[in-house]
Amino acid sequence: MNEVRAMHGMDEAGRVHGAGRVHGSDGALGEAGLGGPGLGEFRPGEFGAGDFGTGAAVTVPTRGAGQRVLVVVHDPLVAELLTTTLELADYRVTAERTGTQGVARLAERGFDLVVFDVAVPDLDSLDDGRRFRSADRPPVLFLTPHERLGRLVPELGLGQADYVTTPFRISEVLARAHVLLRGRAPVHQGPCYGDLVLNDATCQAWRGRRALDLTPAEYRLLRHLLVNAERVLSKEQICRHVWGEFRAGNAIEKLVSRLRHKVDQGLEQGQPPLIHTRRGFGYRLGS
């Protein structure tokens, strides 16, 4: 345990690079000189009277439900720690290391939550209109040193946002992420199977954290296999769904081969191949 703490810059209290506090998510910024009443220290796994103003402490679940989280953190060890922890908590995580990369990724596809470290390089060079000012942006959880809280006031006033002062506790990040996501439907509501997720609104697909660059025919084939998961589909069935007609020769074999390469290439540990051939019968999607 001590080796793990040292590798990720954690002290004996389980804090990443020191002690951290979490302040309220109701718009008040606490006693940091930014106005509003103090909200008190956050206790991992609990919300006390200081968090929402009234009520006794209650246990708060800190697990996700497959929501997509964009982590923008420059420090590779901290990024790895956040990514691993969030994935173990059932979030789907994409990580970037600079502000420019994070903003570009955010515009590229929908996320349910952004965890953004204000210490990333090039943040000052980003045009204000290109940060997180869109009205339809996802909630943002900022990681910020206490002395830089003042710079977050414009961002925190734009919508659903919260912050954790760095150094921070992982349990605090999980709890704040849960609060920001509570009551929000996931962005991606297309069909899914395991770590394979489709978004019919944008005709995009992901295998875990990896975006799949699919042609229209490949997307139609993958979706047909996915909604019929664990069932063997014949070449004739697949042809009529993908092209609206039967195609002779090896058209299906070539299409399936290209799709299998994209879906099942570069698998990480624990990821099974999903597209299988049942010789003489057809193809199926399953683990």
Write the layout of secondary structure elements.
Blueprint: H1 2-7, E1 15-16, E2 46-47, H2 49-52, E3 58-59, E4 68-72, H3 76-88, E5 92-96, H4 99-108, E6 113-117, E7 140-145, H5 153-156, E8 161-166, E9 168-169, H6 170-181, E10 192-193, E11 196-199, E12 204-207, E13 210-212, H7 216-227, H8 235-243, H9 251-264, E14 275-278, E15 282-285
Parallel strand pairs: 4-5, 4-6, 6-7, 7-8
Antiparallel strand pairs: 1-9, 2-3, 10-11, 11-12, 12-13, 14-15
Description:
The chain has a 5-stranded parallel sheet with strand order 5-4-6-7-8. Strands 10-11-12-13 form a 4-stranded antiparallel sheet, with helices on one face. Helix 7 packs across helix 8 (235-243) and helix 7 packs across helix 9. It has 287 residues and is α/β, with parallel strands linked by helices. The protein has helices at residues 2-7, 49-52, 76-88, 99-108, 153-156, 170-181, 216-227, 235-243, 251-264, and strands at residues 15-16, 46-47, 58-59, 68-72, 92-96, 113-117, 140-145, 161-166, 168-169, 192-193, 196-199, 204-207, 210-212, 275-278, 282-285.
